[in-house]
Amino acid sequence: MGNKEQETQHFRTKATALEKLEVQFAAEYRRHLQTERGDFLCKVANKSRSWKIRFPAMLSSVVFWGLIALIGTSRGSYPFTHSMNPHLHPRLYHGCYGDIMTMKTSGATCDANSVMNCGIRGSEMFAEMDLRAIKPYQTLIKEVGQRHCVDPAVIAAIISRESHGGSVLQDGWDHRGLKFGLMQLDKQAYHPVGAWDSKEHLSQATGILTERIKAIQKKFPTWSAAQHLRGGLSAFKSGIEAIATPADIDNDFVNDIIARAKFYKRQSF
Q: Looking at 162, 200, 211, 241, which residue is catalytic?
């Protein structure tokens, strides 16, 4: 048997083993759902030995590491990292700048003119209104997010806040003709790249965001990851010079973005 045939047979063997493991897990999980106790014993025979595995805690652990072993032996010995494919693992990927789901936010600022459309509920309401317009860009957003190690949900939140998914733009520009694209880059500060809804535009704007975050990290090395992200978002909107204290990053734009990002993370961004 040639090397190519051996390799093909190797992958077929791994695929078969993986399928059997998945079937076993599904069967045991269904059995768990049907029992009132939910803590039964599962026997797995292996030649002359057998193990008793407590379900669900131990079984899920065995299945997980079994999947890891199978994937690892078929793809090589490279370990998993936090930068896994966001398209396949949308709820696990949060990039290099902190987990937005653990960050506190008050949402959009309330004032006399927006008492009903403010706070976290107000931010989520607007994010949900923009979801249909932003959804077609989801794959693109994830690709750009992975490239720059930025949470795709944060990118989606900026798009929602700045252009409502492009629904309010005129040929890619705001009504004054000063800001361009889904993420609304100011033409007086940047030279726009690509079409207004293109990967090039999203990559340029997200790259600017990461530059701002790294600048804040350098300027305030003792700040937390959450503060660095907040500072980067604030600098993306108003510039690095405007930030001198933690109070400067607790503003309407930042709180609204984080609240919207949490909503989009729950929508698998």
A: 162
